[in-house]
Each structure stands twice: as structure tokens, then as C-alpha cells.
Amino acid sequence: MEQTEWDKVFPQSDRVNHRKVTFTNRYGITLAADLYVPKEASGKLPAIAVSGPFGAVKEQSSGLYAQTLAERGFLTLAFDPSYTGESGGEPRYVASPDINTEDFSAAVDYLSTRDDVDAERIGILGICGWGGIAIQAAINDPRIRATVASTMYDMTRVSANGYFDAENSAEQRNAKRAAMAAQRTEDYRNGSYKLGGGVVDPLPADAPQFVKDYHAYYKTPRGYHKRSLNSNGGWNVTSTLPFLNFRFFEYADELESAVLIVHGEKAHSRYFGEDTFKKLKGDNKELLIIPGANHTDLYDRTEIIPFDKLESFFKDNLK
Predict the structure, then answer these.
(1) What does the buried/exposed string (b/e) look like for 40-73 if buried means 16 or more CB atoms within 10 Å of the residue's CB?
(2) What is the rounded CA–CA span in Å between residue 36 and residue 33?
(3) How far apart are CA 128 and CA 134, in angstroms?
(4) Is the pLDDT of residue 1 over 60?
(5) 215 has a pLDDT exceeding 60
(6) Distances (CA, A) of 126 to 17, 78, 178, 274
(7) pLDDT tens digits, 124-183
(8) SS3 of 217, please?
(9) Which residues, listed in sequence order, are joined to residue 126 by a DSSP beta bridge?
(10) Statement: residue 2 has pLDDT above 80
(11) Which of 123, 114, 19 minimizes the C-alpha distance to 74?
């Protein structure tokens, strides 16, 4: 895939070489990625695979994180998850707790076999829903030596329990299951999958603040991208089904490698990061709360995202 034009929502760096690459996951799905390499690089570099937010594409936040970390000496890879963006997989716009966790390990497969990467120094970084997925991937893949979860969601918890666990009952889960089961029948009859709708637009007057924050990113020139699910039609409605029936972090206390969880003080999602942090063991786990920041500030506000801390964390743990 030869890059012809810059198609990101952030400006291109003149300190980094960029090109598009592909790799294949364990399910045979071809994933598309942007590779960022520091221009002054030589020898085998530490590498970081980046993805997220949940429902975003590599031209948005993950690419910004990847390019910025490449400016700081890492070889980085921002990839589109299976079934989204420029990556393969049919039908489109499906999410899976299993396949999406696999996507991170597939990125590690690819990075491990590059001549310019030190396979003993590979980390991952997940944003929003991909923060939780990154930690889940690290639990199961010891090749991942360091993990950052930025402004993270636990997609299994929010799917099963609702926001702030406000829908945490068998009755409410069974109602969701019934609605999605009916949608499955309808989708099969129609031969197509109903989409969930992405970020609501136009904004209702009574929208919660965090929905306004999402709108300000995904639906404005700040973050809009034509391939982004959240900017457009969203996920298939039935994508939530497996997350209802799956629980991340069951073995979080067995994760030996380093983890840094970064959250905004005012983020609606902060409880996901704090509660996940409590499940981690060992003195190489850190929780960093950014004063005054909301959930989407950590998507692209480069003056707020703690890149100095991310750089030192990865350098310390990818020795």
C-alpha cells in the first residue's frame, strides 16, 4: 500500500518517516497500519503498537500517539482493528473481545519479525476501549513488555452493566440480549447488518457532557474522518453481544509486565481505569490522573497528553 496523500486528522511530522503496511492476524484477517520510524533511526529499535479509541481509525488518535512517540525514538505502528477502517474482515463494523485482543498480538507478531525492531523491546498502547483491550492482550501475551492504557474503558463492563454500573441486573442484561437477538433475526432476513449510528448528531440539548465531548471530537474538523465508525454510522448493533458474555481482566493479577494507566481527573470513564488498576499486582504498575482533563482531552490535546511520561515509561520498561 503506497501512501499517496496525508489522510490523517493531525499534521505530518518532518522528523518521522511514514508508510502504510499490512499484516495478518491469527484468524487470517489482513490488518492495515501506519508505520512511523524516526528519521535518525539506526539499528534495532524499541517498538510500540497503538490502537483505539473504540470505533476510531488509525488516522485519528492512535496515529497521533504513534507519530509523537516515533519522534521520541520508538518505531511505532498504528493499526485499524479487524473489520474496520482499511483493515479486512467481513462483515464490516464488527467488534469482538477475542479477535480485537488478537489484533494487538498480531501487531506484535509483525513487529517481532522486522529487521529494525528489537523483539525483546515491544510495548503496546491502547486508547479508550482499546486501553482495556491492550491490558487484556498483555495478560495473555508475555512478548508485550510494557502496556499503556490511556483514558481507558472496559468494554465488557460497560456493555454488561451500562455506564456507572447503572444497568447491572440480570433483568436489564436479559432485555439487551432479547433486543439484540431480535435484531439478529432481522439482520439475517434483510441480508445486511443494522448500524448503531455512531456519535449522535445533531446533539440533543440534554446530552450528557461526555456525549458533547465525543461530538466535539468525532463530528467536527478536529477529529472527523470518513472511515471512522464513531464519526459516521457506528458499529453493527449486534457487536455488543459477545462483550455482554465476556469479562476482561479475569487473570489481571497474573500480569507480570509493566502497565501505566492514564486517565483524566474529570473523565466520565475514570472509574474503569481506577478499578482495573486495583486488580494489577507488582511494583511496575502505575496510575496517573491528569488534573482537569476529560475523557476526550487525551485523544488529541498534545499539551495535556503526558508524552514525557509515556516516553520515560516505555524507555524504562523496554530496556
Answers:
(1) eeeeebbbbbbbbbbbbbbbbbbbbbbbbbbbbe
(2) 10
(3) 10
(4) no
(5) yes
(6) 22, 10, 31, 16
(7) 999 999 999 999 999 999 999 999 999 999 999 999 999 999 999 999 999 999 999 999
(8) helix
(9) 51, 149
(10) no
(11) 123
Q: In angstroms, rounded to a whole number, what is the distance separating the alpha carbons of residues 81 and 127?
A: 12
CA distance 34 to 294: 27
Q: What is the pLDDT of residue 4?
A: 64
Cα distance between the two ends of the chain: 32
Question: What value does the mean pLDDT of the chain take?
Answer: 97
The interaxial angle of helices 97-112 and 129-140, nearest 10 deg, is 60
* Secondary structure class of 234 (helix, strand, coil): coil
Does the bond joining 46 to the residue before it have cis omega, within 30 degrees of 0?
no
Q: What are the residue ranges of helices labelled H in the chain?
A: 61-71, 97-112, 129-140, 155-161, 170-190, 209-218, 240-244, 270-279, 297-300, 307-317
Nearest to 145 by CA among 126, 122, 127, 119: 122
Give, in degrees to the nearest 5, the angle at Cα 306 between 300 and 309. 145
pLDDT of residue 104 exceeding 90: yes
Say which DSSP state 276 is in: H
How confident is the model over 42-71, as a mean pLDDT?
Answer: 98
- How high is the pLDDT of residue 5? 85
Q: How far apart are CA 25 and CA 87, in angstroms?
A: 11
Q: Angle between the 307-317 and 61-71 helix axes, to the nearest 10 degrees?
A: 60
